[in-house]
Amino acid sequence: MTQERTGVAAFKGNPITLVGPQLKAGDSAPQFTVSKNLLEDTSLSDYAGKIKLISVVPSLDTGVCDAQTRRFNSEAAELGDDVVILTISMDLPFAQARWCGAAGIDRVITLSDHKEAAFGQAYGVLIKEFRLDMRSIFVIDKNDTLAYVEYLGEMSEHPNYEAAIAAAKELL
Length: 172
Hints:
Blueprint: E1 4-11, E2 14-19, E3 33-35, E4 41-43, E5 51-56, H1 63-79, E6 83-89, H2 93-103, E7 109-112, H3 118-123, E8 126-127, E9 132-133, E10 136-140, E11 146-151, H4 161-170
Parallel strand pairs: 5-6, 6-7
Antiparallel strand pairs: 1-2, 2-8, 3-4, 5-10, 8-9, 10-11
Helix pairs in contact: 1-4
């Protein structure tokens, strides 16, 4: 049976239900498979040996998600080649590609959880009511251990960019 958590997150003040476990720093990063494009999938193991900063957004076509993805794209150059920044949303891969082209996003890798919501369920961010992934941040070390976890309590708020970036830098 899938774990559900209520009362830990909201959308514009209204409670929402998150599906999956609540992870914490020190936990092993759960494996997942998401879509890289319509024909190709990727998984956590494809980024082995890298520090992974995973930025989760409900949809790139919203203001906060747009700003969050642009911010991490601009920070990517300072983090260097040992860090990969993955933005995961439920947006379809071709919508992600269109958005990235229009926004000039060239350092962040966008991945889609639309097929099976495998990432959302494994990381405890799948919103039951909307079938979107809740805004959150995960920093995973080179050995696939969670070094930083931020679950936002309100879907429309920004994450703590500075703390996430600092957590990634500490692993370098």
